[in-house]
Amino acid sequence: MTHYRPPEGRPVSKHLPFGDRRDAPWYGQSIVSVRQFTRSDLEYVFGVAHEMREMVGRIGSFDLLKGKLLANLFYEPSTRTASSFMAAMQRLGGTVIPINEVHYSSVSKGESLPDTIRTLEAYADCIVLRHPQMGAAAEAARVARKPIINAGDGVGEHPTQALLDLFTIAMELGRYAPSRGLALDGLTVTMLGDLRYGRTVHSLARLLSQFGVTLNLVSPAILKMPEHIKDELDKAGVTWREADSLEAILGQSDVLYVTRVQKERFEDEATYLGVKDAYVVTPETLRGARDEMVLMHPFPRVGEISYEVDKDPRAAYFRQMENGMYVRMALLAMVLGKA
Ligand code: NCD
């Protein structure tokens, strides 16, 4: 397992602010891949996220990260990831430098990613990075002295999304409690849509492979889950099968995780148009699902789930978004040495 700690001899911070817990397990670490998280790490993250949820419910915001500064560096569009990291930081009393439009920054003058990262870490304590290239977060973590949090690296990973997805699955199905831990074994999770380019399903499949789950991978033939991830599932002993239709599978699913066809990753528009409406979940579709199934989507949706589905109690995607803020509060507190 790769630990993205700052290189030896390059201190995380010369002056350790009072109250920082250097011995905290995630202090100063970057979060690049879900591969960094063991089962006990997940329980730790969820425990902190659970506390964050209680605290927000009780007092709204509190000063755990007062004086800390986050740089939000987004080379690709974002609504939820960017704003939930900002909300997370601000609810913990910290502040944010948002760089959403890299076109207006020196990136448009040709500045390299390492230079941009070294610049922002001169001002901020932590950098959240979204970038169109796979491996960009790992590259940033190699040059940075401060923690880098991967908010999506092209078709690679989206680890914080997968953590909030797993937290949502566990909470919705009553499979997590701080006193009892995490019990996800035995679940059947069905992923639907663009499994080839969707980074959220790459990360979530990897995370789920730590548990005794069954995965159904439903996609058009040209949008199947990449071979290297299926190899990882095999190595982890996960039972998985591929299908191009939901019908036979939906009734056995505990979770249906729907994704958008990732238009921006296609080389030609005709191919995109040929698959973009391959699946649409409607109230009729859900008639074939279990009463206690959880319906999820990382959003944005562009037609894969009809709006009429929103009032179905199984539709968990708005709760999923809210969980994103609590999980990101937990991650920020952890890497900044306060949890
Ligand atoms: C996802 C992403 O950016 O990968 N969005 C998100 O962060 N919630 C999913 C998508 O864009 O389809």
Terminal residue distance = 22 Å
CATH class category of the largest domain: Alpha Beta
Contiguous helical run count: 11
Name the helix and strand elements from N-terminus to C-terminus, one letter apiece: HEHEHEHEHEEEHEHEHEHHEH
Q: Strand percentage, roughly?
A: 5-15%
User: What composes the largest sheet?
Assistant: 5 strands, parallel
How many domain regions? 2
Unreliable spans are: 9-17
Bound small molecules, by name, code or SMILES, are: N-carbamoyl-L-aspartate
What's the overall average pLDDT, rounded?
93
Q: State the fourth-level CATH superfamily of the largest domain.
A: Aspartate/ornithine carbamoyltransferase
CATH architecture of the largest domain: 3-Layer(aba) Sandwich
Q: What is the β-strand count? A: 11
Can you give a write-up of this model?
The longest helix is centred in the N-terminal third of the chain and has 21 residues, at 39-59. A hairpin with a 3-residue loop joins β5 (176-177) and β6 (181-182). The chain has a 5-stranded parallel β-sheet with strand order 9-8-7-10-11, with helices on one face. It has helices at 39-59, 80-91, 113-123, 136-143, 159-172, 199-208, 227-235, 247-250, 269-275, 283-286, 317-335; strands spanning 69-74, 95-99, 126-131, 148-153, 176-177, 181-182, 188-192, 214-218, 239-243, 255-258, 294-296. 35% of the residues lie in helices and 14% in strands. By secondary structure, it is of the alpha/beta class. The chain folds into 2 domains: 34-157 and 322-335, Rossmann fold; 159-321, Rossmann fold. The chain has 11 helices and 11 strands. α2 (80-91) packs across α11, α3 (113-123) packs across α4 (136-143) and α5 (159-172) packs across α6. The protein binds N-carbamoyl-L-aspartate.
